[in-house]
Amino acid sequence: MLQGKKIAVVLPAYNAAATLEKTCCEIPRDLVDEVVLVDDASPDDTVAVARRLGLRTIVHDRNRGYGGNQKTCYREALKLGADVFIMLHPDYQYTPRLLPAMAAMITSGEYELVLGSRILGGTALRGGMPFYKYVSNRFLTVFENVMTMAKLSEYHTGYRAFTRQVLVTLPLLENSDDFLFDNQILVQALYFGFRIGEISCPTKYFTEASSINFRRSVKYGLGVMKVATQYRLQRLGWAEFPIFDRHGRRLADAT
User: Fold this and answer.
1) Which structural domain, as residue segments, surrounds residue 159?
2) How far is CA 107 from CA 87, 100, 104, 112, in A?
3) Is 87 a residue whose pLDDT tops 70?
């Protein structure tokens, strides 16, 4: 616990057998109360490794996508009564050593959502981020900041911390089951007025680290622009979209 708050780390896993143990070894268990792994029907030994490590493990009977995996992660962690939720990829692309800092930013009461930004430290390219991904990251971030009038350094990191209030308020079940989920949840948080903080996070790209191919990257980029445009249209009162519906389907309703 930290500041009397129960901390849960969620691990959305797919083919993470090779990196899961290394990731879990760096999770500070004196701080973290619960670790929940959701396996998205991996064909490798992810589940066996998770159970050997003693993790609370949920296994999807079929692949539900990255966003679908996160929905299960947060739903199960909410059931455990946690106050702070941190999503950590089990592919070791993001360092677990930042968990205490991210949790502290949440429990300080200053932020309700914290991002581990690969851009703030200026080391993304040196850390191995492909150049085309870096350029698209910067372009999409500028576009979204213009549309949302925010000033985030990036919207595309997979390292995030949330308060319980964020997860029970946002209509997350209206979001995509694919990679676009990551972007939708941030834009929703901005729409609903939650305070977002950022911390510099080193970038690590290597063979075992998960990544999406060029075709899916293009699909994701177009989806990002669509979500940002929807935000602006709804803010102007020109249209309404389910992902910004204050009465939309929530994870809390399904727990």
Assistant:
1) 7-130+151-210
2) 16, 10, 5, 9
3) yes
